Amino acid sequence: MASERATAGRVSRPAASEAIEEVRDLLWPRATTLVWLDYSRGTVMSRVVRRSITRVVTRRELWNGNRSDWRMWGESSHPIRWAWRTHAARREEYEHLSALPEWSHLEVVRLRRPRDATALLSLAG
């Protein structure tokens, strides 16, 4: 399981990818709508950097006693590096997946800005 691969406050790329695929394979066939938060690299990176700094400064527990450590920022599995490295590929992956015939039953709502997500949530109640 993906959580078993979590070590030292980080999750390896393969474990994260496997978890995403497992969830997709379980949920997408039953879903009617896919809400895709397709934010710009700048938006994603500013959020990941801000969250990483906050976690280091506050030393808040993430899970099982793990805490973020600034010394881990140089590792390829760190969320900042992972987000930068995978942003374009993940966008291409979702463009490809959402166009496949097996997912044609899904209404894809592609939100490109946080304010678009806020607007959608305000419609929901």
Structure description:
- With 125 residues, the protein is mostly helical.
- It has one domain.
- 52% of the residues lie in helices and 8% in strands.
- The protein is built from four helices and two strands.
- The chain has a two-stranded parallel sheet with strand order 1-2.
Structure, briefly:
This protein is 52% helix and 8% strand.
Number of strands: 2
| Strand coverage percent | 5-15%
Sketch the topology as an H/E string, one letter per element.
Answer: HEHHEH
Principal-axis shape equals globular
What's the number of structural domains? 1
Tally of helical segments: 4
Q: What is the end-to-end distance?
A: 35 Å
Return the average pLDDT rounded to an integer.
Answer: 81
Question: How are the strands of the biggest sheet laid out side by side?
Answer: 1-2
The biggest beta sheet reads: 2 strands, parallel
Q: Taking Cα atoms only, what radius of gyration do you get, to the nearest Å?
A: 16 Å
Class by alpha and beta content: mainly alpha
Q: Unreliable stretches, pLDDT < 50, 5 or more residues?
A: 1-16
State the helicity in percent bands.
Answer: 40-55%
Characteristic terms for this protein:
globular, two-stranded parallel ribbon, 8% strand, 2 strands, disordered N terminus, 125 residues, mainly alpha
Layout of helices and strands, plus pairs?
Layout: H1 13-27, E1 33-37, H2 41-58, H3 79-99, E2 107-111, H4 114-124
Parallel strand pairs: 1-2
Helix pairs in contact: 2-3
